[in-house]
């Protein structure tokens, strides 16, 4: 756990750095493929220290995460056995990898959207979407929507509530993501019937 502690210290220091937006982009990009920590851990302190830029930071986070997701999809599509599976095994996600196949078979884009919003590691979503040959357009659309909802929900809470949002996000983050997922599904249902 010493390594994880060092990584967390680095993230905290990075949030205050003049190059924080680049660090945020790198963390969001690599988390979609291999990095173990979600970009939220950097987005939250950055948005808290510069509330007026919260949505700008959410945009960086979303764009980099989706671009990383495209790379993850490509790796899964072309190199799952050689590159993707070692990543899955490294994070001990083999059972989840098998389970997500059923999600894709049953829910397709909804599975991508759910994985993009929930604590399911997004790297598992991107690699497996490629490996299971999920339609790339659907994958891309669901990734953009779900990652936007996740990061803009955080930015919105911080923009509106400031420091009070920190406690809520730290203690009830899963609830925030679940609410975003429910709202996203409701939005898709409304759009489908319009």
UniProtKB/TrEMBL annotation:
A cellular-component GO term for this protein: plasma membrane
InterPro entries assigned to the protein according to its UniProt record, in alphabetical order: DedA_domain, VTT_dom
Protein name: Membrane protein YqaA, SNARE-associated domain
Coiled-coil portions: none
Ranges where the VTT domain occurs: 57-159
Pfam families: VTT_dom
PANTHER family: ALKALINE PHOSPHATASE LIKE PROTEIN (PTHR42709), DEDA FAMILY PROTEIN (PTHR42709:SF11)
Keyword Acetylation listed: no
Transmembrane stretches, start-end: 55-75, 136-161, 173-191
Organism: Halodesulfovibrio marinisediminis DSM 17456
Upper classification of the organism: Bacteria, Pseudomonadati, Thermodesulfobacteriota, Desulfovibrionia, Desulfovibrionales
Keywords from the named record: Membrane, Transmembrane, Transmembrane helix
